[in-house]
């Protein structure tokens, strides 16, 4: 008998005996289920084997047997959901749960860790928010940046250990003169849908990238046959191959804008492809036709562990397993291996004074807000458990030290200050409360403005201060420069609103005349950008996981991780 039919019979018993215990006879049950006594006996045996009920028969004709229905309607539903999860049928699970989808989080939490079935290796890791935007060239947070590098390929890529530029889709490139470069593509590269990647996809992708300030000097990108592209620049860029390894330069199908749900279900040419993506999990599977080395892990399932966090709880902390939230690391019973030694993140929290706000036109006002919201002052507002994990920052990188220019301070004439931050970051409310407490002592009310990440990254809002966080991948100094000259949020403010000065910085940095460290010193000295904290981070994974090493984005390379058999 099918399991569905057996469940229907069991549900009928639940309706007949809502108290879930009864003294009855086999014949009574057979009559209720409109079947023979013999068939009823078979049903009871099957339900007992499934663990749904217990049947205690007493010898002798006419004696009543004791029936115990061990599974409630909800338990039966959850057991079926477990079986569907075993089959990776998330759609079936969601349909089954209906309005009771809140049960899914607990079901998924119990499945964290690793599994090896028929030589197929899977790793399930927790995360605290859905990952619905995996679209290169849009505003992406650090986890999404890590993921799209697993899903897409670029003309070039960066070795995570050495920080050196490597071949990716392009197997060779040549600088023809100061403004012209030619890149030669590998033949036979396929997208996940089986279509061939050609120069026309590269042209479409890089032409789209020119909308970003970082790529504004790409004057033209032209196909030279199917396997070669010519790039013409408006300004020299000796590190163009480095630039083309940026996440915004990953190669998409030329018709990506016509594909439905491309942000959540993108099609790339990288080592992993998106098999399923919804509010509950993101499942990536190894792409067998990848042009490079095939990934060792067959499947990565990133499970959304949504838990309400009390507003008075300091939910910190990059010291967790693979996310920003402390509780995530503790959820997986299978994650029993000791964590890697803590490392100090390459990047951190910052405050940005918006040059469009009249509050900061006077440098004495910028020095005042730096003194008021100094990292040490904010840190003192934090619980002791959090303080140990936050290191006051003196610059964007932990081994740099830059200070705001010395001079007089003056309190601006204000009663209210607007502080903008992006949503779905559970440390921000803790930081904002600390800022509010500090400034309240000076009679200043802080209005916290929460906005979508896309709006925050674009600086599309009316605010005096912006609270944010950034992490820099290898090579770190170059990526600091790329962030300072390419992040739309910063463009309107770090130069004090002077567009000509910003453009000058951008050209000097590209030409190698203005190193990122020197540019950072200039910006911090003027007080527009004010670093706050670096986090201590650590990575924890299953004992059997090999090749799992922390990267600067707080994740690990899926392609080189594997599960050692027990």
TrEMBL record:
Domain Solute-binding protein family: 165-328
Entry keyword annotation includes Transcription regulation: yes
Ranges where the Transcriptional regulator SgrR N-terminal HTH domain occurs: 5-118
A biological process term (GO) from this entry: peptide transport
GO molecular function, one term: DNA binding
Pfam families membership: SBP_bac_5 (PF00496), SgrR_N (PF12793)
Protein's name according to its UniProt entry: HTH-type transcriptional regulator SgrR
Organism: Pantoea phytobeneficialis
Organism placement in taxonomy: Bacteria, Pseudomonadati, Pseudomonadota, Gammaproteobacteria, Enterobacterales
